[in-house]
Amino acid sequence: GNMSFFSDSLKAKILETVLSNLRLPTERRVGVEIETILYDKKLRRLPVNLGGGYSAQNLIKNLIHLQKNENDPCSYSLEPGGQLEWASLPFVSLHEINSQWNIHTKILEKLCADNGLIPIDFALEPIYRPDEIDLINSTKYRLMNDRFKSVGSRGPWMMRNSASVQVNIDITCKEDGEEMALVADCLQPFCFLLFSHVPFIHGKCAENKNYRLRVWNNTDSSRCGYLLDHGINQNQNLLESFVDYMLSVPAIFILNQNSDVTGYEGSLGEWLYSLNDKGKLSPEYIQLALHQIFTHVRFKHVLEVRGADRPPFGYELAPAAFWCGLLTAPGVRKSIFERVCTWSKKERLTLNKTAETLDLTQVGPEGISCGEWLKIVSDLAIQGLDERAEFFEIKSERRFLEPFINKALSRPWALRVQDSFKESGGSLLSYLQENYLK
């Protein structure tokens, strides 16, 4: 059937799946996913597939085995180039997530020491090009790779060479999800500027290019970017608009009758429509479709905010604290929401473009410089964390954000690292060895 024909019953089922996990405001939880790139002692990327010595597959098996006695098990998965993704359980406060993260780091450190591995904290592979890195042997990633090669110039960089932090936030009601999504979409450029952490690319300094964002911007414009890029720019019925948009996006892969991943020529909507038509549509299929949308803000059965680069070691929870403060503190969010609603579409488009360059003197909305905006937004995030502490009756979570902000506001982190590299006067390899071969 054609697009207008996607039945109301299909859309209703998708909305129901997105909203299947509503929580009371006082019980709203957060989950964090953190990706890390790993090397061997000779600064070669950790092999992804079994057979070439200790590989990413071995690592993940060992990690899962070593934490099976934990009461709150986190989960592990591998990104297409063997980057390790750690995912917390959802918790009301960042303190619980932090203790999970600390347990994981200890286990990972031991495995790295035993197997001669070195984790690095950059958000983009500093040395190699994607064609020098194997892809995990899976149908899903092969189909993704083929799709991206045909639609953009940077998909392989995104798949094999990038590392980020995703923050998942429970939704309390439809309007809550819509308001959070709009605020997050508007403030995303500030997140990109604040958390930029790509100092090097293919052996050279990235200078002031905000590189991971540029990679995403050239991956697949039909499924990436801002909600604004897809015509979603108001909170009224934002979720319906998101569902309509999702249905129009080309599928990368689907699950066939035997639950095997397979290619598909049509749109996600056509696939879901045909399942619904046959009475076979399940939440699992709907989630599989939602997971093929890579906008900076997206809906699953939670709201996922995906804009932050992988931060420097020790600051991994800063992006989560940033978004929790801005999106889950009722008072702070209300005031931000009212403010971003006054921004024109033109102001927003300009701001989204400025985030690609690490120059805080660029002018943002309301004629205020990006540097000033970062101060304003960071202050609001910290105010939001104070509000959260009271609202949820938890210990303050400021410590996850403040130390990061104090450094990042004076000079973007990616530039700070390049400064220290230039001062070292040596090669990039020797700089990385000095700083990461501990």
Task: Spell out the key features of this protein.
7-stranded antiparallel beta sheet; 438 residues; alpha+beta; two-stranded antiparallel ribbon; 17 helices; 12% strand
Descriptive notes:
- With 438 residues, the protein is of the alpha+beta class.
- Helices cover 46% and strands 12% of the residues.
- It has 17 helices and 13 strands.
- Strands 1, 2, 3, 4, 5, 12 and 13 form a 7-stranded antiparallel sheet that branches. A two-stranded antiparallel sheet has the order 6-7. A two-stranded parallel ribbon has the order 8-11.
- Helix 2 (56-66) crosses helix 3, helix 6 (174-194) crosses helix 12 (330-340) and helix 11 crosses helix 14 (370-391).
- The termini are far apart.
- 46% of the residues are buried.
- The mean pLDDT is 95.
Briefly say what this structure is:
The protein is of the alpha+beta class and 438 residues long. It contains 17 helices and 13 strands.
The low-confidence runs, each spanning 5 or more residues with pLDDT under 50, are none
Mean pLDDT: 95
Radius of gyration: 21 Å
Beginning-to-end CA distance, first to last residue: 59 Å
- Work out the strand percent: 5-15%
Form type: globular
Order of helices and strands: HEHEEHEHHEHEEHEHEEHHEEEHHHHHHH
Number of strands: 13
Q: What is the overall number of helices? A: 17
This entry's quaternary arrangement is single chain
